[in-house]
Task: inverse folding
């Protein structure tokens, strides 16, 4: 079954969704604000998000854009708005599907099943690569697990994708534009999105931008990952000094 995040500020609706999803054997977490939702997807992996648009702190449409900046988890928008222009805009902004309130439990279950099928099939993605090892890092793309010096890393989906992509090219400087295209599947975007994820990833690798071990940013060029040298300093692979 699926891991579901319910983002809904109406306590009655929220409780009903939690009850029905739990009865269907799904694992459910729930929040009532957009900021709480962003915090949840940054720290936990979900298979699908059910997002209400009428949130108290931020309009759901804006929350959707912010969610898309940090995760590619499928999002089903739940809305009382039935304006076609609004719905098209939400789909263009990254929603995978939508439900118009009120909706039945059966309708929700069918939409979730369809979205999860699409997400899991991932239309023609190549099979995962064998385990990647760079220094003390061991990355298993098949199980989507990573370890550092034998200790399991608790990574979000996007953090894992970023780490695996860079680790698959050890010592190679990867341009930010390429990271956006390959990791975020976006042709353009805000560099701050990459910086935030690199910061989170560094923290989990036990390093900082000022004292890097694996992740090195070359200002104006890109990012590279390489194993630390014997004394914890960068290895000899790569080009130019790191900052």
Result:
């Amino acid at each position: 079954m699926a891991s579901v995040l319910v983002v809904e500020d109406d306590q009655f609706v929220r409780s009903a969704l939690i009850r029905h999803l739990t009865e269907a054997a799904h694992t459910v977490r729930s929040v009532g604000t957009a900021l709480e939702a962003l915090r949840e997807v940054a720290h936990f992996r979900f298979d699908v998000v059910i997002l209400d648009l009428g949130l108290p702190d931020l309009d759901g449409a804006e929350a959707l854009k912010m969610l898309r900046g940090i995760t590619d988890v499928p999002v089903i928008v739940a809305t009382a708005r039935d304006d076609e222009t609004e719905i098209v805009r939400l789909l263009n902004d990254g929603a995978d599907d939508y439900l118009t309130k009120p909706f039945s439990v059966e309708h929700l279950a069918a939409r979730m099943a369809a979205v999860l099928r699409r997400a899991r099939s991932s239309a023609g993605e190549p099979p995962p690569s064998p385990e990647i090892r760079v220094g003390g890092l061991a990355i298993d793309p098949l199980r989507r697990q990573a370890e550092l010096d034998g200790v399991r890393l608790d990574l979000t989906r996007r953090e894992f994708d970023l780490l695996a992509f860079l680790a698959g090219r050890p010592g190679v400087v990867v341009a930010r534009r390429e990271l956006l295209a390959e990791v975020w599947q976006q042709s353009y975007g805000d560099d701050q999105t990459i910086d935030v994820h690199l910061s989170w990833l560094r923290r989990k690798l036990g390093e900082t931008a000022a004292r890097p071990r694996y992740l090195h940013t070359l200002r104006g060029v890109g990012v590279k990952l390489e194993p630390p040298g014997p004394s914890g300093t960068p290895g000899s692979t790569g080009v130019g000094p790191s900052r």
Observations:
- The helical segments are 11-23, 34-43, 60-70, 84-92, 105-121, 157-167, 176-182, 191-204.
- Confidence is low (pLDDT under 50) at residues 233-243.
- The longest helix spans residues 105-121.
